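Quick one:
INPUT:
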C-alpha cells in the first residue's frame, strides 16, 4: 500500500495512528497530548483488521493527560500495550537512524524491544534487571554515605548477577536469530558483510564483588548488561563511526526486514510493516529490491511524496490531503 501526499499533508499521522492502534503507543512520542488534535481534549482510533482470516475490531481512545483505553472486539484490555501481543507491527521512520548513530543505550533499548517480540516469555527481563540494578545502586549509595553496612549489598549483588546473566543470554539468542537474515537482507540492498556482534560478558557474583570498592565510591554498578553494546558493522567498519548516512539507513532497514522475517517464521503471521519516507534516499535499484522484497509476504504501508518513487505497482494507492484520505 502506497500513501502519497504533499509534505505536511498527514501521511505520517496516518502511519502513526496504525502503530498506536496495533501496538498501544506512538513510535514518535510518549505524550498522548501530542497525538490529540490542537484544540481538542481527546482522540479516537478505530481499526477493522484480519489475522489468520479472523476479523477483529480495535478501538483506542486517547485523552490528553489521562490513561489510554484500548478495546479488542468490544472487550477492554488491561493496558493499551497489550495490543503488541496480538498484532505484530514494525515501523521505520527517519529518526530510527539513532539505532546506528546514537550511543549504546539506543541500541540496547532497540534490541530489548526486539527481545520482547521474539521471546515473549522473556519480555519482562530487561525491566526486571533494571529494577534490581536500581535497588543495588540505591544500596551502594547508602553504604557510601555510611547509612548501611556492606552486608546489605549481598542479596542485590546476587540478584543483579542472575538477572544480568539471563539478559545477556536472551540478547545473544536474539542476535543469533537476526544476524544471518540481517546479513542477507543487507547484501540484497548493497550493504556487504553486514554483521551484528554483542559486546559484553555475563556478569557474575564474583565479578561484581571484585568491583565492590569502586562501585561504592561511584555509587553505581560498574559492570553488567546496562553498559553493553551491540556492534553493527559492514566488514571491519563500525557503521556508527565509519558508515555513511546511506549505509546507516540501509542497516536500520535491513534490521527491520530481518526481524519481520524471523517473526513470520516463528509465528506464521507476518507483521504489518510501516515504512515512513523510506524511499527518498534510496537509489532506483535499491528501491526496486526493497519493493520486490516487501511484496512477497504480509502487508506494508509506505509513505512518499510521489507515486513515482515506488518502482512497482502498489496493491492500493492512497492520496492524503489535510483531513482526508482517499483512494487514487
Amino acid at each position: 500500500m502506497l500513501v502519497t501526499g504533499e509534505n505536511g499533508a498527514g501521511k505520517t499521522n496516518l502511519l502513526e495512528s496504525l502503530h498506536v492502534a496495533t501496538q498501544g503507543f506512538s513510535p514518535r512520542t510518549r505524550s498522548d497530548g501530542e497525538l490529540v488534535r490542537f484544540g481538542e481534549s481527546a482522540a479516537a482510533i478505530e481499526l477493522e483488521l484480519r489475522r489468520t482470516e479472523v476479523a477483529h475490531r480495535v478501538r483506542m481512545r486517547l485523552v490528553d493527560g489521562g490513561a489510554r483505553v484500548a478495546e479488542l472486539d468490544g472487550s477492554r484490555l488491561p493496558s493499551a500495550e497489550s495490543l503488541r501481543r496480538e498484532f505484530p507491527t514494525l515501523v521505520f521512520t527517519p529518526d530510527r537512524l539513532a539505532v546506528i548513530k546514537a550511543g549504546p543505550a539506543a541500541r540496547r533499548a532497540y534490541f530489548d524491544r526486539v527481545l520482547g517480540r521474539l521471546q515473549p516469555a522473556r519480555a519482562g527481563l530487561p525491566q526486571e534487571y533494571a529494577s534490581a540494578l536500581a535497588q543495588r545502586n540505591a544500596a551502594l549509595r547508602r553504604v557510601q554515605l555510611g547509612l548501611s553496612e556492606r552486608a546489605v549489598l549481598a542479596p542485590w549483588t546476587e540478584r543483579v548477577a542472575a538477572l544480568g546473566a539471563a539478559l545477556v543470554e536472551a540478547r545473544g539468542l536474539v542476535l543469533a536469530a537476526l544476524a544471518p537474515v540481517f546479513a542477507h537482507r543487507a547484501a540484497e540492498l548493497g550493504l556487504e558483510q553486514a554483521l551484528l556482534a554483542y559486546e559484553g560478558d555475563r556478569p557474575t557474583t564474583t565479578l561484581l564483588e571484585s568491583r565492590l570498592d569502586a562501585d561504592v565510591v561511584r555509587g553505581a554498578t560498574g559492570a553488567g548488561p546496562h553498559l553493553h553494546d551491540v556492534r553493527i558493522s559492514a566488514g571491519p567498519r563500525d557503521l556508527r563511526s565509519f558508515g555513511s548516512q546511506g549505509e546507516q539507513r540501509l542497516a536500520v532497514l535491513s534490521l527491520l526486514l530481518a526481524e519481520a522475517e524471523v517473526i513470520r517464521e516463528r509465528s506464521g503471521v507476518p507483521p504489518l510493516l510501516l515504512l515512513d519516507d523510506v524511499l527518498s534516499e534510496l537509489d532506483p535499484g535499491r528501491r526496486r529490491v526493497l519493493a520486490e522484497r516487501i511484496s512477497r509476504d504480509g502487508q506494508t504501508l509506505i509513505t512518499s511524496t510521489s507515486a513515482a518513487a515506488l518502482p512497482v505497482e502498489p496493491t492500493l494507492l492512497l492520496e492524503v490531503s489535510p483531513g482526508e484520505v482517499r483512494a487514487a
